[in-house]
Amino acid sequence: MFISFEGIDGSGKSTQARRLAAALATEGQEILLTREPGGSRGAEEIRRLVLEGEPDRWSPETELLLFTAARRDHLERTIRPALAAGQWVVCDRFADSTRVYQGVSRGDLRAMVDRLHDLMIGVEPDLTFIIDIDAETGLSRARARPGAEQRFEDFGLPLQARMREGFLALAREFPGRCRVIDGSGDEDAVAARVRAALGAAE
Ligand SMILES: Nc1ncnc2c1ncn2[C@@H]1O[C@H](COP(=O)(O)OP(=O)(O)O)[C@@H](O)[C@H]1O
Ligand SMILES: [Mg+2]
Q1: Assessment of whether the complete model's pTM goes beyond 0.85
Q2: Which atom of ligand 1 is found nearest the CA of 185?
Q3: What CATH number should be reported for the domain holding residue 32?
Q4: Is the CB of 160 within 6 Å of ligand 1?
Q5: Does any ligand 1 atom lie closer than 6 A to the CB of residue 145?
Q6: Ligand positioned closest to the Cα atom of 12
């Protein structure tokens, strides 16, 4: 199975992806935990180009090409080989993040995102957990976290709220694979919701 975690910054994706991967591994499942942008050597190099530096470092179109190039490398070098070897892949962000970020926050590039995706990626996860949290909680959790990857973190509350709506709209667009998970409450509570949704989907 190929599982992705999506949602706004600070929603708890990385925390829950890690926890699900650890729980499944304990049960004996071979798991590959990976992330985007990144997840392969080349894609991790591209990650630095897109997440560090000035907010206006790239045009929206160039940025979209960089994200797509990173995803293609990640798919070729990491995701496909793992799935072929019988592992489950748990991925912290995948194409839905591009649909929302480049579609909502970088001018309306959604049509271009979809065309590039069809051309260069062409696969979707089997299951996508959209961790849903109110914009304010997400922003305060994200701002409390240290790190140099700040290019996308100063969007502010209105944009964070629009991106939350963008993820919820995607869940309606792709009801077959997307499950909206309430991201409020402590980590254990959210992890239990993820496990219940996985159990129901299997
Ligand atoms: N349920 C939770 N309650 C409180 N804090 C949380 C919860 N889940 C994650 N956090 C903390 O909030 C911050 C953002 O979580 P993270 O998993 O990195 O979010 P994301 O990957 O979606 O940006 C981290 O410091 C994390 O430890
Ligand atoms: Mg994260």
Answers
A1: yes
A2: 1
A3: 3.40.50.300
A4: no
A5: yes
A6: 1
Mean pLDDT of the chain: 94
Per the structure, the complete domain to which residue 93 belongs is given by 2-200
What is the reported pLDDT for 103? Answer: 83
Question: Given pLDDT bands bounded at 50, 70 and 90, which one contains residue 96?
Answer: very high
Q: Is the pLDDT of residue 90 over 80?
A: yes
SS (H, E, C) the chain: CEEEEECCCCCCHHHHHHHHHHHHHHCCCCEEEEECCCCCHHHHHHHHHHHCCCCCCCCHHHHHHHHHHHHHHHHHHHHHHHHHCCCEEEEECCHHHHHHHHHHHCCCCHHHHHHHHHHHCCCCCCEEEEEECCHHHHHHHHHCCCCCCCCCCCCHHHHHHHHHHHHHHHHHHCCCCEEEEECCCCHHHHHHHHHHHHHHHC
Ligand nearest to the CA of 182: 1
Number of domain units in the chain: 1
pLDDT score at 105: 74
Range scoring the smallest mean pLDDT among 113-122, 128-137, 145-154, 166-175: 145-154
Binding site annotation covers 14?
Answer: yes
CA–centroid distance, residue 142 to ligand 2 (Å): 9
